[in-house]
C-alpha cells in the first residue's frame, strides 16, 4: 500500500514540475527541461501533448521568452507544424528544436513552450538552458604545439586547426608573413593547398611545413600565418627555435694541401680546422690515414670547442720511412664531430736523402780509383 502511494506521489511531483500552468485538460510534458549546451549547439525536446478533456483540441504553439538570436522550430511526424489536433483522452508527440547562436554569453536562459487550444484549454512548459561556455562569432587559428626546435636544415611541421565559428560558410585563403628566405607550405591530405572551405561552425586540420633559409643563424624566429575571407580572418604566430647548422672544413692556413719531405725525416704541417656552420662544434677529433710504414702525430688530437665562424690551428708531424723511394704519397686527414666531418687529401712528395747521395758519389769515386790503380799497375804489361 505504501509503495503504491509513493508511486502516485512521485508521478504527481513530476507532473507538477514538467507540466506547469495546464488548464482545460491540456498538458505539455517532457522529462528533461533543464539541459546544458555549448554555443552553436541545437537542442531537441520530445514533448508530449496530452488532451485529457472530452473533446478534440486544436491548438497552436509558440515559444515565449526566447533570448535574442535564438531560434526554434516545431515538428511532428517529420514536418513543420503550425497547428496540432489531439483527440479526447489521447496524446501526440511533437519535437521542439531550439538553436543556440554562436555569439552567446555563458549564463542560464529561461523560456517556455506555450500551447493555446480552444476555449480555456492552454498549457505552458518552462525550460532552463545553461550555456556552459562563452560563445564566439569569429574565425580562430589554433595549434597544440606552435613552438618547435631543430637544426637549420630541418623542416618544421605544425598541425594547425582552422575554426569557422560563424553562421556562414567561409572560404579561407591561407597565407604567411614569414621573412624572406623562409619557405611556408600549407598541406591537407598530403597535398599542398592555398585555401580551405568550411561550413558554419566547422573546423579543419591543416599541416604547415616551414623550411628555414640556408645559413640561418641560431635563434628564435616567428612565422606569422593567416586565414582570411572578405568578412572575417584569424592570425597566429608559429615559433621555430633554430639550434644552428653544423658544418666543418679541414684545410691549411694557406689552403695548400701539399708538402715535400725527405725519406727518413719529419715534416711539421699546420692544419686549419674551420667551423663553417652556425652552431658551436664540440669534441672535434683529428685522425689520419697514411701510406704503409708512415707515421703521423697530432699535437692536439681533440679540440674541445670551436665556436661558429671560428677556426683552430693544429700541428701534425708526419714522418716518412727511411726506405721511402722518391715519389708522391697521399695522406688523408679527417676532422669529425658527432654532427659533421671533413676530409682533406694531403699530397707528400718524397725526396731521396742527401746522405745516400754522398754515399753514391763515394762509391763511384771508389770504383774509379780502383780502376785507375789497376790500370797504372797492370796496364803496361
Walkthrough of the structure:
With 381 residues, the chain is mainly beta. The chain contains 2 helices and 30 strands. The strands form 6 sheets. Strands 1, 3, 5, 8, 10 and 11 form a 6-stranded mixed beta sheet that branches. It has a 5-stranded antiparallel beta sheet with strand order 2-4-9-6-7, with no helix packed on it. The protein is rod-shaped, with a radius of gyration of 46 Å. The N terminus is likely disordered.
Helix content: 10-25%
Overall SS class: mainly beta
- Please report the total strand number as a whole number: 30
Q: How far is it from the N-terminal to the C-terminal residue, by CA? A: 167 Å
How many helical elements?
2
- Work out the oligomeric state of the chains in this entry: single chain
Strand content: over 45%
> Low-confidence spans: pLDDT under 50, at least 5 residues?
1-21
Radius of gyration: 46 Å
Major sheet summary line = 6 strands, mixed
Using the alpha-carbon principal axes, give the shape. rod-shaped
- Give the overall pLDDT as a whole number: 87
Question: Quick gist of this model?
Answer:
This protein has helices spanning 2-18, 354-378; strands at residues 20-23, 26-29, 34-37, 42-51, 57-64, 71-76, 79-80, 83-86, 90-99, 107-116, 122-131, 138-142, 147-150, 156-165, 170-176, 183-188, 191-193, 195-198, 203-211, 219-228, 233-242, 248-251, 258-262, 266-275, 281-289, 295-298, 302-306, 311-319, 327-336, 341-351. The protein has 381 residues and is mostly beta strands.
Amino acid at each position: 500500500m505504501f509503495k503504491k502511494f509513493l508511486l502516485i506521489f512521485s508521478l504527481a511531483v513530476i507532473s507538477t514540475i514538467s507540466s506547469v500552468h495546464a488548464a482545460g485538460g491540456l498538458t505539455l510534458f517532457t522529462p528533461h527541461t533543464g539541459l546544458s549546451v555549448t554555443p552553436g549547439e541545437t537542442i531537441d525536446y520530445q514533448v508530449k501533448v496530452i488532451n485529457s478533456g472530452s473533446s478534440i483540441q486544436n491548438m497552436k504553439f509558440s515559444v515565449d521568452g526566447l533570448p535574442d538570436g535564438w531560434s526554434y522550430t516545431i515538428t511532428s511526424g517529420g514536418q513543420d507544424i503550425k497547428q496540432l489536433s489531439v483527440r479526447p483522452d489521447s496524446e501526440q508527440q511533437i519535437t521542439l528544436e531550439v538553436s543556440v547562436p554562436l555569439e552567446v554569453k555563458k549564463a542560464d536562459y529561461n523560456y517556455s513552450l506555450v500551447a493555446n487550444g480552444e476555449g480555456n484549454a492552454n498549457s505552458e512548459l518552462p525550460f532552463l538552458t545553461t550555456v556552459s561556455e562563452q560563445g564566439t562569432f569569429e574565425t580562430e587559428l589554433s595549434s597544440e604545439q606552435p613552438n618547435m626546435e631543430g637544426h637549420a636544415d630541418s623542416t618544421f611541421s605544425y598541425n594547425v586547426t582552422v575554426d569557422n565559428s560563424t553562421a556562414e560558410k567561409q572560404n579561407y585563403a591561407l597565407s604567411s608573413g614569414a621573412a624572406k628566405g623562409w619557405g611556408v607550405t600549407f598541406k591537407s591530405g598530403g597535398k599542398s593547398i592555398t585555401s580551405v572551405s568550411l561550413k558554419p561552425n566547422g573546423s579543419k586540420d591543416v599541416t604547415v611545413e616551414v623550411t628555414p633559409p640556408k645559413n640561418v643563424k641560431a635563434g628564435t624566429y616567428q612565422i606569422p600565418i593567416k586565414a582570411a575571407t572578405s568578412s572575417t580572418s584569424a592570425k597566429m604566430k608559429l615559433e621555430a627555435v633554430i639550434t644552428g647548422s653544423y658544418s666543418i672544413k679541414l684545410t691549411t692556413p694557406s689552403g695548400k694541401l701539399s708538402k715535400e719531405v725527405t725519406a727518413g725525416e719529419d715534416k711539421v704541417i699546420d692544419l686549419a680546422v674551420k667551423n663553417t656552420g652556425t652552431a658551436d662544434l664540440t669534441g672535434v677529433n683529428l685522425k689520419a690515414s697514411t701510406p704503409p710504414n708512415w707515421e703521423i702525430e697530432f699535437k692536439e688530437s681533440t679540440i674541445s670547442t670551436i665556436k661558429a665562424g671560428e677556426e683552430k690551428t693544429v700541428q701534425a708531424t708526419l714522418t716518412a720511412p727511411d726506405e721511402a723511394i722518391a715519389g708522391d704519397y697521399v695522406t688523408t686527414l679527417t676532422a669529425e664531430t658527432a654532427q659533421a666531418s671533413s676530409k682533406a687529401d694531403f699530397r707528400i712528395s718524397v725526396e731521396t736523402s742527401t746522405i745516400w747521395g754522398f754515399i753514391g758519389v763515394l762509391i763511384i769515386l771508389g770504383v774509379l780509383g780502383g780502376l785507375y790503380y789497376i790500370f797504372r799497375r797492370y796496364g803496361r804489361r
